[in-house]
Each structure stands twice: as C-alpha cells, then as structure tokens.
Amino acid sequence: MAEGKKKILLVDDNLFLLGLLAKAFEHEGFTAFEAASAEHALLLLEKERPEIILSDYEMPGMDGFAFRKHLLGNATTKNIPFVFLTAHNNTELVMEGLDELMAVDFIDKGTPVQVIVAKIDNLLSTVREKQALSLLELRKAAEAINVKSVPAKTPTINGFEIDFWHKPYQGYPGGDFIDFIRIGTRYTCVVLGDVMGKKWTAWFFTFSFLSYIRAAVRFCVSSGEYDPAVILQKTNQVVCEDEALVDVLSSLSLILVDEQTGHLAYAGAGDLPLLYFNSAEGVLTSIKTSGLLLGLFSSAKYDATSITLQKNDQILIFSDGLIESVAADRHTSNYGLFKENICPFLRHKNGFAAVKDHLSQTFTDATQADDCSIISIIKK
Asked: In terms of pTM, does the model score above 0.70?
C-alpha cells in the first residue's frame, strides 16, 4: 500500500465526541470521515473507502453490532479493519465483538482522545505492514512459478520497431496483460488486454485470457485464417463457455503485423480507440472498432480494420489506466487530454522514449488509478 494520508471513518451519535475525534485524527495526519449514525456511515461507504472504521456500539436505530454485521455481509467492506468504541465493560460483549464479528479491538470511551488516536495509528500501521508482507509473499510465489502477464522484452519484427511501457497499480500485478505471439516467419500478433478489476484478483484471470487468445491464434492460423476479428470471436466464445470466468470481462486490442506486406490488421473488444501518428503531418488521430468486451455475450461480433503505415508512422495501443488519474481524492478520466498531452512528444526523434519518460513522471503512486500499459508500433 502506498504511503500517504490514512483514512478513517468515525461513527458516533454523540456529535461533540465525533467532532473532537475528527479534529484529533486530522491533527495527526488522518483524513477523517464523520457519520452520526450507522445509516449515514453506510451512505458514506458507497463513495469513500477508509482504511479503518472506529464505531460507537450503542447508537439509536442500527447499533454498532448490527452495523458491523452489515459490513461483513458486503464483499467491498468486510475486510476493512473495524474497532468498537464503547462505554461498556461487559466481557461477553467484548468477546462477541472480537470473535464473532471479527473486530480488531475494543476501546473504552473513557480513554483520553490522544490515546485513542495513538492506538488506532498503531493498529493501522500494523495492518499496512501485514499487507506489505502479504504482497511480498505473493510476488515471491509468482516469481517462483515463473508466470508473467507482461513480457520481459520486445520482439524483433522486420520493418517495424516495437516498444512498450507498463506500470502496475500501487506495485501490485493487476489486470493488464501484454503478449507478442510469433506466427511462422511472416506474422506477429500484438496483444494488449485489461481484465476488469484491480490487483491480484484481476491478475489471476489474465492467464486464462492469455491462454485462450494464444489458442485462438494458433487455431485460426492452422485453418489459414488471419483475420484478427475472427480470432477475437473465437476467443470470446471459449471465454463465455468457461464457468470459471463467469462475470469476468476483459478488453482486448489485437493487431496482426504482416512483415511481408508491411500492413497491420486491427480488431478490438471494448478497448480504447488506438492512436495513429502520421509522421509526415505530425497529426495524431484515433481509430476505433465496435467490438464488445470479451466475456459479455457469446454471440458478440467483431470487425477488423486494415492499417497502412508510411515510414516513421506510429500506432499506439493502451489501457484505460493511462487516461485515468486521482487528484484530491477525485477519480477522473479523459481520453482527449491524454491524446493532447503525448502528441508533442511524438513529433520529435525518439518520441516514444520521451513519452515513456513523461508517463513515468506523471503516474506516481499518488496519482495512478489503475494499471498503465502502452505499446508502440513504428514503421521503419
């Protein structure tokens, strides 16, 4: 987890204590969200995601225990660390909260406010350390079985220069995947996909999609079929039939590079319009297809577009992480702004190297909202 302001949700019907706690936590560098009832807290949780919740036990309407049970029944909130703040010293009540409701602690309301803040700060630091350790263990496991959703190097394709840049979200492997599938001595299939979701959950499914894409490419080629739209259709059909991938969706950009003719054939599934840079005119334009996300409907149709590049012309395919950003806790997305920002770099020699430098500086842990991936194809 990236370091930064720690976020806490405070829930208490005592408005004086609620405001006092909020000021104390904010003084220690927290962002504090205040809710005067459990019902209000649930509304806040639809928009905000705190790292820890400190809640009163005894409240009118939904009490602290009912609130906690509700959170445990929701997949998006059940794993947020939860601490009870109570005036009760009932041992049975405390044990029920700690055991059955999986609260991480009980804090007596008579505890000085500065001590409450210190205890929560220590608890959250421990949680962050455990998450960092878990991430390290998962990375070691992934490295041990040598599975990668992004290649270590770019392929050599006659007549073209291929390069890419990838930055996972907050250091976690995620849903973006890249592949370069060599087909005989003439063709290379360039693949960029994005499984919906974030971090390890999405990363796990990338290998299913990659295996199906590779299989579809081999099957089509063995049948003499070199249409990327057909490859997407075959991939989508098997994805939709896989029970393990129910409700798992992925975008996909697929470009078939023909070294013999120098032509490209492009088909997309729910992806962003790719960008075509005309080197002679210095103009950047968009190319889009109408294909639906993989896994949405087994009957989905896909179309292909033929692209002819002149010397030094360039194609860019990229994931939606590059058009998203986080600033002041607001999530924004702007395809047009991304296109506008990178165009000046492409007009210069070694333009993609400059683009990569720009992206590395732009997408920090504080501003990045998702995995970021981009592939460049330049006609030599």
From this structure: no
Same domain, 269 and 185: yes
Of 289, 279, 275, 281, which Cα lies nearest the Cα of 340?
A: 275
* 153/150 Cα distance (integer angstroms): 9
Give the pLDDT confidence of 288-314 residue by residue, as tens digits. Answer: 988 999 999 999 999 999 999 999 999
pLDDT reported for residue 181:
94
Is residue 336 over pLDDT 50? Answer: yes
Cα–Cα distance, 151 to 344 (Å, whole number): 28
Asked if 292 contacts 268 with a C-beta cutoff of 8 angstroms, the reply is: no
Torsion region of 43: left, alpha or beta (phi above 0 gives left; psi -120 to 50 gives alpha): alpha
The b/e string for 328-356 (b: 16+ C-beta within 10 A; e otherwise) is eeeeeeebeebbeebbebbeeeebbebbb
The verdict on residue 46 lying in a domain is: yes
Same domain, 177 and 74: no
Q: Which domain holds residue 91?
A: 6-143
Cα–Cα distances in angstroms (integers) from residue 312 to residues 16, 164, 276, 348, 380, in the given order = 66, 17, 11, 11, 6
Q: 256 falls in which pLDDT band (50, 70, 90)?
A: very high
Side chain identity at residue 231, one-letter code: I
Q: What is the pLDDT of residues 257-281, one digit of tens each?
A: 999 999 999 999 999 999 999 999 9
The beta strands (E) that lie in 259-292 are given as 263-269, 274-278, 283-287
**CATH code, 258:** 3.60.40.10
Instruction: State how far the Cα of 259 lies from the Cα of 263, in Å rounded to an integer.
Output: 7
CB atoms within 10 A of CB 365: 14
244 phi and psi angles, rounded to 5 deg: -70, -15
The answer to whether residue 298 sits within a structural domain is yes
Residues 254 and 368 in one domain: yes
Q: Two tokens at 144?
A: 């041990």
CA–CA separation, 137 and 150 (whole Å): 19
Q: Is residue 124 a part of any domain in this protein?
A: yes
Of 189, 161, 192, give the one whose Cα is nearest residue 314.
161
Q: How many domains does the chain have?
A: 2
Is 40 a domain residue? Answer: yes
